[in-house]
Amino acid sequence: LAEHHPEARIVLVDAQRAAEGASGRNSGFVIDLPHKFALEHPDPAHKQKLLGLNRSAIAQLDGLVQRHGIDCQWSAVGKYQGAVGERGEAFLDHFEHLMKDLGEPYRKVEHSELNAVLGTSYYRRAIFTPGGYLMQPAALVRGMAENLPENVELLEQSPIRSLQQEGGKWRLLGDEGEIQAPKLLLGTSIFTREFGYLKNRLLPVMTFASWTRPLTDIELARYGGELNWGLTPADHAGTTLRMTADRRILLRNSYKHVPQYGGSINDGMRQRIQADHRQAFLARYPDLAEVPFTHTWGGVYAISRNFTNFFGQLEDGVYASACDNGVGAAWGTISGTLLADLAVGADSAQLRDIQQVTGMPSLNPPEPFLGLGVKSRIALAKWQSRREL
């Protein structure tokens, strides 16, 4: 927006501090490939459009990191997709088939080579794809917030309680005042429904991660693997695993339906989730049993029943990109950029691409059927994938 209109006053409003939300709470993958269910799309052109959009996002983020010297462990190291048992290997075989259909480079990594990278013999094998990046998400978002264009004003810890349309402008009412603007761009993900849009179309899901303190030199020698890699599970309900550039081991698994967002989580649930993470950690790294977790956290994101992202105009003067379906870093970057193009009337091939690969998230069944259905599906996936956790 600032590049299109350097003379305009642009206000970026966050209810929390920048990076305290989901954009700073993910596992630090910026993935170029169409993700999960998008890879199953029957139209090859659809998948190529997604691939092009994701790679444009990576190039944009790479440029911002380099230009502003953002210290966020930004790394072009690709990623592994790993299998623990037979179920995971079946998913991995299917993933290889999809990579061949997409015409994308990949490399099989067998047990002994994978063991040398991960420092654990827990995984049978993996597929390595070279196009993904890793980063520290909160550091990336804070770095961008600290290097905004001069005509952008950042208001943090400034929740907007309601929107009102009046005299051709929108009034954003907050705790300590109001903002008036002719156009609004909502990058509000699951919270878009709290402003009255996409009601009954978005599902709030929280996924959880834990990480250790940085390993000491002695622990690092005992670990025996490499630094700065990331592995996602071939079985989507499995465990994501990372060794960060600053020697932390991170695990992510456990999904919860959170109709009240953070209010759906209590201390007992947090303790059970951390215990599950501890069990997964010890299964992979029993020789590091004395290394503690320093943090366990969750982040809320939006999914839709038809796995469709929303992008476009909601009503006169209101635009939104919502429902990333769990692929936030790349999708949020490119969809936000192109939403600005749409709002100012700037046409491009990429804008047409994103309009062709997005749509309307499908309606959800009413409660209590929705909550029961989501919880049952998550529980079934956890049971089916129990050997991959």
UniProtKB/TrEMBL annotation:
<dbReference type="InterPro" id="IPR036188">
    <property type="entry name" value="FAD/NAD-bd_sf"/>
</dbReference>
<dbReference type="InterPro" id="IPR006076">
    <property type="entry name" value="FAD-dep_OxRdtase"/>
</dbReference>
<dbReference type="GO" id="GO:0016491">
    <property type="term" value="F:oxidoreductase activity"/>
</dbReference>
<feature type="domain" description="FAD dependent oxidoreductase">
    <location>
        <begin position="8"/>
        <end position="342"/>
    </location>
</feature>
<dbReference type="GO" id="GO:0005737">
    <property type="term" value="C:cytoplasm"/>
</dbReference>
<dbReference type="Pfam" id="PF01266">
    <property type="entry name" value="DAO"/>
</dbReference>
<keyword id="KW-0560">Oxidoreductase</keyword>
<protein>
    <submittedName>
        <fullName>Oxidoreductase</fullName>
    </submittedName>
</protein>
